[in-house]
Amino acid sequence: MLWAASAAQAQTAPAAQAPKQPFSFFVTSVGGGKGADYGGLAGADQHCQTLAAAAGGGAKTWRAYLSTQAKDGQPAVNARDRIGQGPWYNTRGAVVARDLAHLHGDTLELARLGNNLSWATAFTEKNEPIKRAGDQPNEHDILTGSTPDGRAYTDAADHTCQNYTSSAAEGSAQVGHFDRTGGGNTSWNSTHGSRGCGQANLVATGGAGLLYCFAIN
After folding, report:
1. Which residue in 22, 66, 125, 211 has the most C-beta neighbors within 10 A?
2. Residue ranges with strand state E in 56-190
3. Through-space distance between the first and last CA atoms of the chain, rounded to whole angstroms
4. Are 147 and 69 in contact (CB under 8 A)?
5. What is the reported pTM?
6. What is the pLDDT of residue 16?
7. Quick one: CA torsion of 78, 43, 217, 145, rounded to 10 degrees?
């Protein structure tokens, strides 16, 4: 009888839960304050690093998901080449993407299935939701400067607000919609260009100069 009771207890005991993964992806809770001008990639990376550190993630190395265009003798930089290999977890321990191919839908099958980045999984470093389409104000535009496959544009148009050094009323930076809503497509990283580079311009477009941040380690 004692053996039977022990066996029954073993069968009903809850399974041990896997430990929650430390976060390695977030959307910045605030922009840099100067529209698309972050002082270039280095400034954008530092913004990610500073916010992550304040939220307890400073042991990791963080990169802003941004592409730059070839300019002044400097080669283009692809956002997908800057963010490590994954997997990436949000602040609640959920997988946002397993790897670069999953994040960008590199195969027909992966593109059909899609990654797990949406309004239900994209949170700030403070584990808070971001204002999406329908909220006031709408802040679903996230700066990326990237094509849908995570690479830099190769045409002559400005898709990066002068590689994130301009806060002028003119110019443009490509943005994605973290909530996968509006803009004629459901792309998280390449939905449309902003109408200008200043903070007021980005707000008018439906954003706040926010960034995607990924840990590379």
Report:
1. 66
2. 62-64, 88-89, 95-97, 141-143, 174-177
3. 52
4. no
5. 0.90
6. 55
7. -30
